[in-house]
Specification:
alpha+beta, two-stranded antiparallel sheet, Multidrug-efflux Transporter Regulator, Chain: A, Domain 2, 13 helices, 8-stranded mixed sheet, globular
């Protein structure tokens, strides 16, 4: 991240924080007054300046709230943690150097992007390590066969959702990892493909819903999301996902982290794979 970008990431206004988190500015001020969180820097004239890290913390609090924790407990969990963004792949990657600029996307757009990345992974067949985060098991089952196809040619394929238990059916099958009720990951949409020849990831964070009368949740769902083929950013996402898998299965987490440490990054000039993926994305978004 360049100097100018770093300064912008540490000089965000309350309006920008509101836009990126979905919280009203008045709610953010109320949190500050009642809980001392967030704790933005102040200019000499009294204006608040927030950082990307504080936005990640706010999103973690919102995610914990959506999973059933009370607001005081959610704030305490984030503030007291040495690694507040660690339960969240999105937060861990979004605050890292080189992270792409996020966009607010419709759920149908994420479906198209995901399908393009997943199909390209099958086409490449290049011994990838793959992760998918689906929030609900019901969102995963319709695309399970696609992940079985990916798993047949990958070194490891791991999927997260609110499964009842861990399921590992052996080589060539996706490993299902349950999400705890309080996990921030339950608010995220993730596709990660990490292989020596092809690296891509799509990571989204579901914004709080503002329902309007007569409209369905599906048509309103928006995600703050980014996608990238930068091998270093993809590897960062893979490492965080591996650690999250290790919370449920320590042996699996160790194995995934060892596999990642032993493999090279994808080519830093992914011209052909980027072209292939972009072509798929354009095609799938057009028909979404």
């Amino acid at each position: 991240m360049g100097t100018d970008q770093a300064q912008m990431a540490n000089n965000l206004t309350i309006k920008e924080v509101s836009q990126r988190t979905g919280l009203a500015a008045s709610t953010i001020r109320m949190w500050e007054h009642r809980y001392g969180f967030p704790a933005p820097a102040r200019t000499a004239s009294g204006y608040r300046h927030y950082t990307d890290e504080e936005i990640a913390q706010i999103k973690s609090v919102i995610a914990y709230r959506d999973r059933g924790l009370s607001l005081p407990v959610a704030v305490e969990r984030v503030v007291m943690s040495d690694t507040p963004a660690e339960p969240s792949i999105y937060a861990a990657v979004a605050t890292a150097d080189g992270a792409p600029v996020p966009q607010v996307l419709r759920k149908s757009t994420l479906h198209a992007l995901s399908r393009a990345m997943e199909h390209e992974a099958v086409a490449q067949g290049s011994s990838a390590i793959c992760f998918g985060a689906f929030q609900d098991e019901a969102f995963y089952r319709p695309v399970e066969n696609r992940y079985v196809q990916i798993a047949r040619t990958s070194d490891a394929t791991v999927v997260f959702a609110d499964f009842k238990k861990i399921s590992d059916k052996g080589p060539g099958q996706p490993i299902e990892i349950p999400i705890d009720a309080e996990d921030a990951l339950g608010n995220e949409w993730t596709v990660i493909i990490d292989s020596p020849g092809y690296a891509a990831c799509l990571i989204g964070w579901e914004q709080p819903q503002k329902a309007s009368r007569g409209s369905s949740r599906a048509t309103e769902t928006r995600f703050e999301a980014f996608w990238t083929v930068d091998p270093k950013v993809v590897r960062r996402a893979s490492e965080v996902a591996a650690r999250l898998a290790g919370r449920q299965d320590a042996a699996l987490g160790d194995r995934l982290q060892q596999m990642l440490s032993d493999r090279p990054l994808a080519s830093t000039e992914p011209t052909q794979s980027l072209t292939n993926l972009t072509n798929r994305i354009v095609k799938y978004v057009e028909v979404a």
